[in-house]
Specification:
The chain has 350 residues and is mainly beta. The protein is 12% helix and 44% strand.
Length: 350
Amino acid sequence: MNFGMKQCIFFGLIAALGFWGFGLVCADESPLPGPRTLVVALDGTGDFVSLQEAVDAAKKGDTVFVKAGRYAQDVTIHSKDKIKLVGAGVDQVTILGREVVVGALHVGKWPYGATDIEISDMTINDRGGHAVGLFNGQGIALRRIKINGLLFSQQVKDIRIEDCIIGGSETTGAQFADSEAVLIGNMIHDNDHGVSIAGKSNVRLERNVITRSLFEAVVVSDHAHAVIVSNTLVKNDGGAAFLGQSQSDISGNVVALNRVGFVVAPSSQTLTSFNAFYNREGDYLRIGNPNQPAPELKALSDITGDPHFVDPVHDDFRLGPGTPLLKVGRFPYLGALAPVSTATHRSTEK
């Protein structure tokens, strides 16, 4: 074989290998399948009739969209990452649960958790003692959900609950055990206790209205840590109880129209500032049998007196004209709800 022929063969092999390599690069760079939307519909017009089958089929990045209907089903989301369960609307979709299962919606299932799960725009009913159970997960978001019953969380990190309505539980509205959570802008009503923070939980409550609790609106116990800022705790038996070895930072709240305000155990640590009180039988009490008045616990920055709610009889707890709770400390207003303007109040009265 002469030198020229050898050169031709050599460069031919290089060209072939280059083309083959180019083909591999093209194959490697082909787009992956994008996020999908899986539709659940009771009338069979979606991809699934079963909520559980849709969730089981969902992969990372997918959305399960639930069309309008009353679903006599329960659903458990576990061993999943970055999926969304979205309803057609809080008044359009209701998950009822089943008689044989406690709870209608579960995220996480021991020992399997779930990560970065978002659930929104639906109603979830109590079934057998609780409505929603969160277990052993991380990054769980609940938005614009109506929960008729108990929301229970155990060993979950980075929970975010926003713009939800939680009520009608025969025990507690939202109960946290060894969990980390932020609750913002929720209405929590008509429960035995509004929010219970226990174990080694770390929970922030901000701009929530908690009302008509048979006992306290908020209970912080054990070794839990709570930040309670800019909430309206109103028309409960008690505003809040701080028990055990708990640590709490409480500021900017309106605690009004309750039987009592705060009940504090000597073993707990509380830091209070810029709270407004207007209760029937005392604002600060030391725990005992019976509880004892403790006016020495009152912070110098606290305000006592009528908050001037717009219409507390009909649960309109916005601050009305004449309220003394504007521009207090670092807060433009105290409590969860922005005050009404004088013009708005006059137009409502007409």
